[in-house]
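Private note to self, pasted from the team thread so I don't lose it. Backbone tokens:
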């Protein structure tokens, strides 16, 4: 059965500009996982490429990112860092 809720720990948000990712920790079904959302996802959600506002964009679209994160987790939960891509958007 797939998980239906992700609790993002907002205190763990890290803008990794070099890799064009926003990294974070989230709890799903009582387990903590490391996630990263690609800037391309933020651009797809907002219509604008992140510049120095990736964290703000993340906060604006955190519900959609959480849903995409569950899709990414279901696809591959064995990775050390689960990367959320545009393919995970529903």
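Design output:
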């Amino acid at each position: 059965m797939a998980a239906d809720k992700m609790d993002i720990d907002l205190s763990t948000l890290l803008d990794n500009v070099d890799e064009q990712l926003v990294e974070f920790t989230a709890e799903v079904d009582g387990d903590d996982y490391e996630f990263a959302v690609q800037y391309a996802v933020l651009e797809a959600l907002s219509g604008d490429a992140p510049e120095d506002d990736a964290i703000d964009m993340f906060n604006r679209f955190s519900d959609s990112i959480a849903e995409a994160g569950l899709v990414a987790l279901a696809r591959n939960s064995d990775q050390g860092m689960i990367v959320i891509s545009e393919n995970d958007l529903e």
